[in-house]
Amino acid sequence: MKWLREMYTGEKLAGDLPSILHRIDEENGEMTDLCRLITLSTAQQCQLDILPVKEITKPFYRQADLAVVGIAADRKEAQTVVTRMLEDCMKAGKGGQLRTYFEAMGEDAFGSREEVSVRQS
Taking the domains of the chain in order of start, what are their residue ranges? Predict the structure, then answer.
């Protein structure tokens, strides 16, 4: 699993992001009801997935090389975060193609959970 170093973050989690990321346990899905991860979709024909943390513990997701690009407190906040992503994507001239937008950032834009900071808008 790789994490966008400058993470798109919902307002409810932004002030406590390092603590929250530290508490996410990829092996047993701790914090299952406390946040949603926004990832590049595992389906090529889709752009993003919004997943409860508990989903990343399922075998399918453990085997997939997930790229986490955002985090939010709940689904509603995740939708707001995705809207911010789309706005940035449009400004970058990617025409709403979020997967292309994030892939164009290159591998250096991604790292481990410990390297994540809140993206400044």
Answer: 2-107
Rounded-to-integer distance, Cα 119 and Cα 66, Å? 19
Distances (CA, A) of 81 to 17, 54, 70: 14, 20, 7
Question: What SS3 state is found at 95?
Answer: coil
- For the chain, the residue count is 121
Per residue in 52-85, pLDDT tens? Answer: 888 877 788 777 888 999 999 999 999 999 999 9
Look at residue 90 and give its three-state secondary structure. Answer: helix
Backbone φ and ψ of 119, nearest 5°: -70, 130
CA 98, CA 24: separation in Å to the nearest integer? Answer: 25
Measured distance CA(14)–CA(39) in Å, rounded: 17
114 bridge partner residues: none
